[in-house]
Amino acid sequence: MSRQATRDDEDPASRWWATAISDISPGVIRLRGYPVADLIEDASFAQVVWLLLRGDLPSPAQARLLERALVAGVDHGPQSPAIAIARMAATCGVGINNAMASAVNVLGDVHGGAGQQLMELLARIDADDALDAVRAALADLKARGIHVPGFGHRFHPVDPRRDPLMAAVERAVSDGVVAGRAYRVATEIERQLAPIPMNIDGATAVIFSELGFTPELGRGLFVLSRSVGALAHAWEESGSGLRNKGPIPRTSLPAYTGQPERRVGHGG
């Protein structure tokens, strides 16, 4: 017979993984103090994400804005390296969790990190003197050879996710849901970079900043969102019947740029 789990808040073992997030005991699950049954009944997924990260439930308007950002980032097809990697991993016979993890593991500074980088930039720029502060910040990035994160897209002339997201932020500012600081700075950056438009990373960075998330959590929220696409694509590819699917069709060979054929002991 298994022993009943117990908690002693003074016991070093009980404090080893002490947490303010989840209160778990036999027959009890409470998240930030809310019984999970209540959350199942009355809270959306976006609200629970906010709850676990921030400690309390958001307002309905805050939750809607967060949900828009999470929906916008779910997928970009195999044009996204992470999604292509999820599909390739699925053909290698690994589990769905491994395929998803393979996708998440490449969401780093270059692919997936622009939102966090823009959030850090937005936090440094004085919104009350946005015109001159943005001009100075862009000049500094240019002098250091650093790409402005969150603007331009290698595939879309204009990212179709930009306008609905920024319109939602504009409404939230007008309704007093958010302050508008990040919105003002980001739109000034976009004005000075014209005709280079904001992309998905930029628009979601504005939303996450306006909602008070840290830059690190901004990246985490993007990873959470894109994991949905990784799951869907890995599952679809797992039903293709193909094995060990490489990055290009088997009928195509990578260009070879090395030495011509040579022989050991014959001058090579």
From TrEMBL:
Q: In which pathway does it act?
A: Carbohydrate metabolism; tricarboxylic acid cycle
Domain of life, source organism: Bacteria
Q: Which InterPro entries match?
A: Citrate_synth-like_lrg_a-sub (IPR016142), Citrate_synth-like_sm_a-sub (IPR016143), Citrate_synthase (IPR002020), Citrate_synthase_sf (IPR036969)
Which molecular function GO terms apply here? lyase activity
Q: Which SUPFAM superfamilies match?
A: Citrate synthase
Give the matching Gene3D superfamilies.
Citrate Synthase, domain 1, Cytochrome P450-Terp, domain 2
Asked whether the UniProt record includes Transferase among its keywords, one would answer yes
Region annotation (Disordered) maps to 239-268
Asked whether the keyword Cell division is assigned, the reply is no
EC number(s) per UniProt? 2.3.3.16
Pfam families assigned: Citrate_synt (PF00285)
The protein's UniProt keywords, in alphabetical order, are: Lyase, Transferase
Query: Which PANTHER family does the annotation name?
Result: CITRATE SYNTHASE, CITRATE SYNTHASE, PEROXISOMAL
Q: What's this protein's family per the entry?
A: Belongs to the citrate synthase family.
Protein name per UniProt: citrate synthase (unknown stereospecificity)
Q: State the organism named in the record.
A: Pseudonocardia adelaidensis
